Amino acid sequence: MNALCWNHPTISLKGSKLFENYGFIRLEAMPHFHHVAALKISNSESKPSPLKVENRMFILGMGFVGQFFAQELKKLGWAVSGTCRNLGQKMELEERGFDVHVFDANDPEPGALKAMKYHTHLLISIPPDVDVGDPLLQHEKILRANLQGGDLQWLCYLSSTSVYGDHGGDWVDEDDPTNPLSQTGKSRIKAEEQWLNFGNDLGLSAHVFRLGGIYGPGRSAIDTLIKQKSLSERQQRRGRRQYTSRVHVQDICQALKACIQKPSSRRVYNIVDDDLSPREEVFSYARDLVMKKWPGKIEPLSEKMEASFINNGSGRGEKRVCNVRMKRELGVRLVFSSYKSGLQNIIDQMEDLQIFGPC
């Protein structure tokens, strides 16, 4: 997960009422899920002191998922605080009603650690560092001292399905052994265990979500095509796989809310959709959608970009990730069970004017 606040300079989304604000996508109204309980709301602002709002979420790393989830919770009456990496992001998020702290893993702000004590829920969406491990847990003693005797009841660490490594294309579920191929994956496994142990020691409901490839408005194959951007080396490696797990950000948020309603202890969940299609197929479908909506307005792909989307060999890390536990235990019914419905929803919300400018 990228801990940076997410920036998209061009695209406006009308269906979900997303729009630009100081260069950042501002999420105004997303679908709510009726299983979330009614909340008692106070007019108090969420500051690092005792809060009167019944449900209070602290998000470590208000990036793409964190911002999307924060806005949904805020619409439900939650007080939401969190961290980002610079003052520009802090100002933008605070204008949207969030209490935000700039977080430096090497020198964490005391106010951020103290603020967590007065929150009931904690979402960790900061990836591990291959050199120091989990950025926050390198200060575990300080964190433990700040949270001991506080209001925290629940935590969830956002990890990745990459921790499973290569299983030769076989199905894997949460009980299968992990064998990450990268150092980052190995760091994630260590962080998973550390956060589960940390939650257990404090008597919290602690969970790990292993996410597939995350996509959503402003971050999808459609956006990549519109921006005429070639895939990164990492994306191309994933593109060589026959099976690719992915999940729409709205379904991640749905699963998080379900997990809050059904807390457990030391539970791991795979959060992926039902479609394991390879990346090449996804980009082919996305291109068809773009050409159908805007015939003749998208430039032909360059040879370099075209080549980056083509499956040109067998990839490492082959596996099929099972999501049965998510559905059975959390009761999640995917809004976007396939990339096809997810991409269709994304393109339906895009406005021509914001992409191509005035005629």
TrEMBL record:
CDD domains: SDR_a4 (cd05266). Pfam families: Epimerase (PF01370). Keywords: Isomerase, NAD. InterPro entries: Epimerase_deHydtase, NAD(P)-bd_dom_sf. It comes from the Eukaryota. GO terms for molecular function: isomerase activity. The keyword Transmembrane does not apply. Residues 154-271 form the NAD-dependent epimerase/dehydratase domain. PANTHER family: EPIMERASE-RELATED. Belongs to the NAD(P)-dependent epimerase/dehydratase family. This is Uncharacterized protein LOC111485481 isoform X1. It comes from Cucurbita maxima. The gene is LOC111485481.
